[in-house]
Amino acid sequence: MAVRGQLIRFALVGVVNTGTYYACYLVLLTWLPYVAAHVVAFALSMTGSFFLNSRFTYRTRPTWRKFLLFPLTNAANFTITTSGVYLLVDVLHLSSRYAPLIAAAAAIPITFVVSRTIMLRPDRTDPAPEPVAPAPARIEG
């Protein structure tokens, strides 16, 4: 599968994920305080993102191991965007209004690499291929 196609699908899943988060957040906000609504909406959207990336982006089987490692993609994204916003605003003196958008765009390739590594890594539970016995020596006469 071509990496470029995966990157495009990854970005599309990101758009869907953002929309899912925001819709869930707005609905939950009617019943929950904003922080609780944010946490629940974030967890729901991240779960949806895992399954969409698993099936649509990487076309791989979702497993518990991948599911438990998947939050690392969000940690990578958070670290990169936070560092990026600081660099853009405090060091390069860009507007704080647009810095998060630029930092988020810059984080996509790195987050993609982390996500791809997690999602395409073989599971340890998959049986290892059996060793192939060497062919018997031929006796020529």
Topology as a string of helices (H) and strands (E): HHHHH
Q: Spans with pLDDT under 50 lasting ≥5 residues? A: none
Shape: globular
Major β-sheet annotation: none
What is the terminal-to-terminal distance?
A: 49 Å
Q: Kindly provide the radius of gyration, computed on alpha-carbon positions and rounded to a whole number of angstroms.
A: 21 Å
Rounded mean pLDDT is 85
Structural class: mainly alpha
Question: Helical element count?
Answer: 5
Approximate strand percentage: under 5%
Structure summary, number of beta strands: 0
Q: How much helicity do the residues have? A: over 70%
List its traits.
141 residues; mainly alpha; globular
Written overview of the protein:
By secondary structure, the chain is an all-alpha fold. It has helices at 3-28, 34-57, 64-69, 71-91, 99-120. It is globular, with a radius of gyration of 21 Å.
Write the layout of secondary structure elements.
Elements lengths: L2 H26 L5 H24 L6 H6 L1 H21 L7 H22 L21
Helix pairs in contact: 1-2, 4-5
Summarize the structure.
This protein is mostly helical and 141 residues long. The protein has helices at residues 3-28, 34-57, 64-69, 71-91, 99-120.
